[in-house]
Amino acid sequence: MELIYAIAIGVLAGSGVWLILRPRTFQVIMGLTLMSYAVNLFIFGMGRLTVGRPPVIDPGATPDPAAMADPIPQALVLTAIVIGFATTALFLVVLLASRGLTGTDHVDGRESES
Questions:
Q1: Alpha helix locations (H) across 1-114?
Q2: How far is 55 from 46, CA to CA, in rounded Å?
Q3: DSSP 3-state assignment of 88?
Q4: Is residue 58 part of a domain?
Q5: Which of 38, 87, 104, 108 could form a disulfide with 12 if both were Cys (CB 3.0 to 4.6 A apart)?
Q6: Number of folded domains in the chain?
Q7: Residue 89: exposed, middle, or buried by beta-carbon count in 10 A (0-12, 13-18, 19+)?
Q8: Nearest partner of 102 among 111, 114, 93, judged by Cα
Q9: How far apart are CA 1 and CA 50, in angstroms?
Q10: Residue 63 belongs to a domain
């Protein structure tokens, strides 16, 4: 399971970097979004990947740190999702304003030859 999880993070991060290097602003925004997803999955994975264990503690059991999940990465990812959504909305508004003012959506302000 860890291998599949690591490959998913790598694919998201690689796709995000590739899109960030593209010349159009919408592709850059999508690349930033994919990078934020990769970072969120990475942070979430830092809290241990366990199957069949209770989210925090089993009711009626003695507190055993090995039997509990760490709630801190879960809270960090939840906060990052909310902040990422707001940042993406702001980027889209800036994209639309920039396109309206310049007439193009290229990052460098020039149309490509292709």
A1: 2-20, 25-45, 71-102
A2: 14
A3: helix
A4: no
A5: 38
A6: 1
A7: exposed
A8: 111
A9: 9
A10: no
Domain annotation covers residue 113 = no
Report the distance separating Cα 38 and Cα 15, nearest Å: 10
DSSP state of 108: T
Q: What six digits make up the tokens of 46?
A: 């830092």
pTM of the model: 0.77
DSSP structure class, residue 66: G
Mean pLDDT, consecutive 10-residue segments, the chain of 114 residues?
A: 91 96 90 94 82 66 66 87 93 89 78 56
Among residues 4, 25, 10, the alpha carbon closest in space to that of 112 is found at 25
Residue identified by tokens 């994209």 is 95
- CATH number where 44 lies: 1.10.287
How many Cα atoms are found within 13 Å in the side-chain-facing hemisphere of 76?
15
